[in-house]
Amino acid sequence: MPESADVVVVGSGPNGLAAALTMARAGLSVRLYERAATVGGGTRSAELTLPGYLHDVCSAVHPLAFSSGFFRKFELAKRVRFAVPQVSYAHPLDGGKAGLAWRDLERTADGLGVDGRSWQKLLGPLVARADEVAQFTGSQLLQVPRHPLTAMLFGLRALEQGSIDWNTRFSGEIAPALLTGVFAHAVRPMPSVATAAAGLVLATAAHNGGWPIPVGGSQAIADAMSADLLAHGGEIITDAEITSLDELPNARAVLFDTTPRALGSIAAGRLPAAYLGALGRYRYGNAVAKVDFALSGPVPWANPGVAQAGTVHVGGTRAEMAASEADVAAGRHPGNPYVLVSQPSRWDPSRAPADHHVLWAYTHVPRGSKEDRSEAIIAQIERFAPGFRDLILATASSSAMDVAAYNPNYVGGDIGAGDVSFGQLVARPVLSPEPWRTPGRGIYLCSAATAPGPGVHGLGGYYAARSALRHEFGMTPPPLGIGD
Question: What does the mean pLDDT of the chain come to?
């Protein structure tokens, strides 16, 4: 094994892989280190319950797979087979009612009755400019927007839905609940500008390309990226936990797909005290607890339309979900929790034996929680799908601290690698026009703790690689398409 490389990458989540393959395609020697036995970070799949039942360990559905600027350049949709449900997400309510967010915006509006026109007026201008929304929200927020009108339209809607006036637009309960289920992905109190902005990005994607599910599990994304890295001469070293820069070969650039906390620990001797202090002030968000299910049949939703959705947000009304997220923010475990659910085996039969299914579910909990939330999750699903409990063959439960032990980037169970408050989206992890570049020579941060933030999109890694190519090698990033 050579004692040096042009580039070293620590961590093989989607951002680390994006950084590594971008550098390798530039003709540089790249070595990637991963502490686990397999690459992928948040895009791993495994048999967690019973043999033959393939579960996604972290992410399951990928709303940004088609809209991410990096994945478009990489042509991910040509490398990985995706199933794209016609209903991107659904939200069941008591009494058999439900909201369905179809890929077709007009069809969605038609199903929302009195609030259909309001839904269309809220999201229609963003969906019509979906590519520009993706570019604006997938870039560094300190930059001048490339499409100022789109930025303004998006910002006004985020301000409205992030304020105490968020209900003014709606008359019924279904449309606001349907929208709030998407906002709650941000794991923060609602309403807030940050949760509204994150939710509007996802809702726009839902009515554009949809929310795709990778056939064969989320691991397929990591496998496609690692295969490209290897094809361009890169090396991957697994079962290699890095605790100090001294453990790495000499390299002109080292990119960390880690948290700021880990970066500060590993590279402390090469970073100035002021920057280490800033990393120490970086705030981590609240957490998730997860349960995977092996089922003897499909989830029996009271409203059959819900079964058509790739993702289901379970949590009741807008007010119920806001109360649940407020409990989490106050350090309490909600009695009536918000639960995010997906049954990928409906679209990908390879995930489970014939006529059987896998179900992926997580709920929000205070950071550092050790509580098993299996019963709370089961009860909440049973509320909207009577008979669900009788289908359970086996479960695999992870508390927030189990999630953190699985992946150190998930501090205390925070799968976003840092709080997504508005301030920390602008300064992520520090206020800088190039937040990926540190003051340490040749040292870069490329994780979800950098702009543009959480999600499986690879952009943090791609932007860090572009910065390193420019500053350390005097190069511009190479093309990333299959035909290159």
Answer: 95
How far, in Å, CA of 73 to CA of 70, rounded? 5
Q: How far apart are CA 287 and CA 291, in angstroms?
A: 14
DSSP 335-389: SS--EEEE-GGGT-GGGSSTT-EEEEEEEEE-TT-----HHHHHHHHHHHSTTGG
As to burial, measured by CB atoms within 10 angstroms (0-12 exposed, 13-18 middle, 19+ buried), residue 26 is buried
405: left (phi over 0), alpha (psi -120 to 50) or beta: alpha
Instruction: Find out whether 90 and 305 touch, Cβ atoms under 8 Å.
Output: yes
Q: What is the pLDDT of residue 1?
A: 42
Per-residue pLDDT tens over the stretch 343-369: 999 999 999 999 999 999 999 999 999
Residues whose CB is less than 8 angstroms from the CB of residue 376 and which lie 6 or more positions away in sequence, other chains included: 333, 334, 335, 337, 363
The per-residue DSSP string of 205-252 comes to HHTTT---EETT-THHHHHHHHHHHHHTT-EEE-S----SGGGSPEEE
DSSP summary character for residue 173: S
The Cα–Cα gap between 428 and 471 comes to: 20
- In one-letter notation, the amino acid at residue 248 is L
Instruction: Please check whether residue 441 is in contact with residue 245, taking contact to mean a CB–CB distance below 8 angstroms.
Output: no
**Which residue in 161, 154, 116 sits closest to 135, CA to CA?**
154
Place of tokens 């179809």: 102
**What confidence tens digit (pLDDT) does each residue in 292-321 have?**
999 999 999 999 999 999 999 999 999 999
- Give the mean pLDDT of 157-175: 96
- The single-letter code of the amino acid at 312 is V
3-class secondary-structure state, position 463? helix
DSSP result, 112-162? TGGGHHHHHHHHHHHHHTHHHHHHHHTS-TTSPPSSHHHHHHHHHHHHHHT
- Range in 55-64, 91-100, 375-384, 425-434 with the lowest mean pLDDT: 425-434
